[in-house]
Amino acid sequence: MQPKDNIYEQYAYSYPHKQAYRELPTPIPLQAAxxxxxxxxxxxxxxxxxxxxxxxxxxLFTVSNPxxxxxxxxxxxxxxxxNHRATLPSIQxxxxxxGGGTPTFLEVDDFxxxxxxxxxxxxxxxxxxxxxxxxxxxxxxPEKIALIESYGIDRxxxxxxxxxxxxxxxxxxxxxxxxxxxALSQLANSTIPEINIDLIYGIHGQTPxxxxxxxxxxxxxxxxEVYLYPLYTRPLxxxxxxxxxxxxxxxxxxxxxxxxxxxxxxxxxxxxxFRKAAVGHVETRHNSAVDGMIGIGAGAxxxxxxxxxxxxxxxxxxxxxxxxxxxxxxxxxxxxxxxxGIYLDEVEQIRRFLIKSLIDGGSLDVDxxxxxxxxxxxxxxxxxxLFEQGWLTQNGSIIRLNxxxxxxxxxxxxxxxxxxxxxxxxxxxxx
Length: 431
Ligand SMILES: C[S@@+](CC[C@H](N)C(=O)[O-])C[C@H]1O[C@@H](n2cnc3c(N)ncnc32)[C@H](O)[C@@H]1O
Ligand code: SF4
What we know:
Blueprint: E1 22-29, H1 30-34, E2 42-48, E3 50-51, E4 63-64, H2 70-87, E5 93-100, H3 108-121, E6 130-135, H4 142-150, E7 155-161, H5 165-170, H6 177-188, E8 194-201, H7 208-219, E9 225-230, H8 238-244, H9 250-263, E10 266-268, E11 273-276, H10 282-285, E12 293-296, E13 302-303, E14 307-309, H11 317-328, E15 337-343, H12 346-358, E16 364-365, H13 366-373, H14 381-388, E17 392-395, E18 398-401, H15 403-407, H16 409-415, H17 419-427
Parallel strand pairs: 2-5, 2-12, 3-4, 5-6, 6-7, 7-8, 8-9
Antiparallel strand pairs: 1-15, 9-11, 10-11, 13-14, 14-15, 16-18, 17-18
This protein binds S-adenosylmethionine (SAM) and iron/sulfur cluster (SF4).
S-adenosylmethionine binds next to strand 5, strand 7 and strand 8.
């Protein structure tokens, strides 16, 4: 396993990718899909597929500035949540996330309604369990912060990307540093225990000096966590054309960012994630590689051990809008059936286990692996390969990517994909 020139292949935060999902041969009743699963340690996810603008780099399932349809979307979300509770009354959630899109895009009343659906209709005890919500500088407000506090949400992740107006403009996300400053000051004055700031490196024209400036500016808010994202551009966009004209500086900027944050007292958890060493929760956040997830909302995925499913997947505005519309028009009974997803045989379950354990700050628990799959970790050749490359370190029964491995994370993740999944992804026609 040796990288070619480019180590930035893909952010493998989940497996299999939705591009490998297909229409199921026969629809599966929700109850049947979950009947043999342990439903006591689930993760809950809520997807809000709306943003105030569509950033030039983003290929997430979201549309910007929908003119209408928020109400009907939230009503469908409520039907879906209630249907889950009624069909699977024994579900218990251990951790949760509210993402998108930008959940704080909603007006205060709608934002309150969304949180209430999650807590009261789906039954996620947001005050007792560990959870996170995504926010943007433009849409966060004191009223929404007060709601986040009252629901006991532990972590707010906010996309700042860069402190230089010229750079955020180039990212197709015009944002003044003043606006970012105002949002972070509001969050700093709240009682929310963990604030995460997202930054991006590899922007056209970004230099080590301008990158260091953004990192230093970020330190003024003393965030518990910082995520550093290498920029991935979408094919055929202006951003991609611009970035193709210049040398790829991402690896240099990555090292600059990593070394800077370590000096500032952050612990490197993964290629992207840096946390203040003294603050806990990393383990809670990176749920065990074998626990299931229930996602609600258009674009949300759900996982049992053997079946992953979601609504249809798309990237273009028109196709996403049509999926959201179909979702919003679903009747309660429509949520009883799963029609789109992928089955995971044991080979795929093992690959998923490795990816969830090694990528994005996880840890590979050898005992759990051997118990679960009834085979020795030493019989998995790809793991031996990673050791041979010097990218893994073992401590007792726990294996993790080491510093050299984390640097290669966006190469290692995709290298763990099976040929079957790679074929399905390449055959998928993006809409
Ligand atoms: C799930 S997104 C949503 C956060 C929120 N909507 C916002 O943008 O403020 C989380 C982060 O992923 C990063 N991201 C998304 N697409 C990216 C891309 N193509 N390249 C690099 N980073 C990306 C951005 O830093 C973003 O803040
Ligand atoms: S990066 Fe965030 S705000 Fe921008 S389009 Fe993507 S989800 Fe929306």
